[in-house]
Amino acid sequence: MSRLARYIASQVLAAMLLVLCVLGGLDLLLYTIDELGNTRGGYGVLQALRYISYIAPRHLYELLPASALIGALAGLGSLAASNELVGMQAAGYSRWQITLAVMQPAMLVMVLGLVLGEYVAPRLEIRAEVDKSLALGLRAGLTRFGHWERDGGVFLHFNSMETQGILHGVTLFEFDDQQRLVHQVEAELANFQGAAGGKANRYSWQMVNGNEFNFTYQGDAVINTHQSFGERNWELDMTPELLQVLVVDPASMAISDLWRFGQRFLQQGLDSGPYFLGFWRKALQPLNTGVLVLVAISFIFGPLRSASMGLRVFSAICLGLTFTIVQKLFQQLSLVYHMRPLFAVLLPILLCFVAGVVLLKRRA
After folding, report:
1. Torsion, Cα of 292, 298, 300, 301 (10° steps)
2. Could you tell me if 132 and 151 lie in one domain?
3. Residue 364 banded pLDDT, cuts 50, 70, 90
4. In terms of domains, do 166 and 52 share one?
5. How far is residue 79 from each of residues 86, 320, 360, measured CA to CA in Å?
6. In this structure, are 121 and 182 located in the same domain?
7. Under a CB-based contact definition with an 8 Å cutoff, are residues 219 and 157 in contact?
8. What CATH number does residue 230 fall under?
9. DSSP letter string over 227-254?
10. Are residues 83 and 207 part of one domain?
11. What's the domain range around 225?
12. Is 338 within the bounds of a domain?
């Protein structure tokens, strides 16, 4: 890397980090004020501040593309305002070399986004929700309607869940190939026991203090038998870790988990769209960040090169908002009309890339 490239990269990286700190600080400040208003019972100020610290990586992750856009614009804008870019070009340093120099700190932002989105933010998000729920006297952050899961012909509903792998208020419904109810199990608790006798993807759950109903069909007649039990085991393709992840928003999940659970939902015949959409949105976020930086560079060399810094920042914010709105619109349309999630995420990025290249080649 040449000295000029290092100089440009350091200026742009410093601007990106400064913008990230400002935007992240404002975002977390507003969220902290809102969260402190929700304190009650065992969920006090210290618990709320700890909750904010756990979800901070996810908020920073979501702000990375906007920070890269505004930071690249501010860093290059300061060089342009002092005529340093003009001097570099007069010395034979082309705009494409400057573009490559700016892309180097952008790549660091992309790597930071991958690390936060895959390894840091999802795990802290789950821990934050679980700790908050326990402090409020709830479990696993479930709604008052509980949670539903499916395992082939078995449908599982539970009211609440503890981190130790204990489900409360469990009801199982098992259907035959003709969609007729053949078993119904109700239990106060379900304790996770581990792998079921070496069977692949089968795990044993111990039902405690419940009732079992068996339904036999003979023509139009239905024979119902009932028995109570203290303990009995039931095999399911579910683990506590799986259930804990599935009760959180797909936007908060890791990239690998989104793909794995999307495949699971697809095999179960359930709607896998939100998981595959979340996967492609997070997997392509580095590309998303890169094209936004490219457009920011085009603002410096393109039609806004002689504009004030305020106008450049305003234009960048407008561009970021427009891009975000269009991208979210396509993503929601993909869920409604069952379009391919990859297409919904990639199309706005390609349009933004084409716009950046066109603006960068445009001469005054």
Report:
1. 170
2. no
3. very low
4. no
5. 9, 22, 17
6. no
7. no
8. 2.30.30
9. EEEEEEEEEES--HHHHHHHTS-GGGS-
10. no
11. 147-246
12. yes
Single residue among 246, 262, 293 that ends a domain in this structure: 246
By CB neighbour count within 10 A (0-12 exposed, 13-18 middle, 19+ buried), where does 100 fall? Answer: middle
251 domain residue, yes or no: no
Single-letter amino acid code for the residue at 17: L
Indicate whether 212 and 324 sit together in one domain: no
Tokens read off for 79: 């060089």
**Residue 66, token pair as written in the block:** 């906007």
Q: How far apart are alpha carbons 357 and 180 in whole angstroms?
A: 59
96 residue type, one letter: W
Q: How confident is the model at residue 221 (pLDDT cuts 50, 70, 90)?
A: confident
Please count the structural domains in the chain.
Answer: 2
The whole-angstrom separation of Cα 364 and Cα 361 is 10
Q: Are residue 190 and residue 123 in the same domain, yes or no?
A: no
pLDDT tens per residue across span 81-117 = 788 888 888 888 888 888 889 999 999 999 988 899 8
Residue 63 CB neighbour total at 10 angstroms = 20
Contact 192, 166 (CB under 8 A): yes
* 267 is a domain residue: no
Contact 245, 257 (CB under 8 A): yes
- The pLDDT tens digits of the residues spanning 298-328 come to 877 755 555 666 676 677 678 777 888 888 8
**Is 221 part of a structural domain of the chain?**
yes
User: Residue 146's pLDDT is what?
Assistant: 76
Question: Could you please report the per-residue DSSP string of 158-200?
Answer: ESEEETTTEEEEEEEEEE-TTS-EEEEEEEEEEEEEEESTT-T
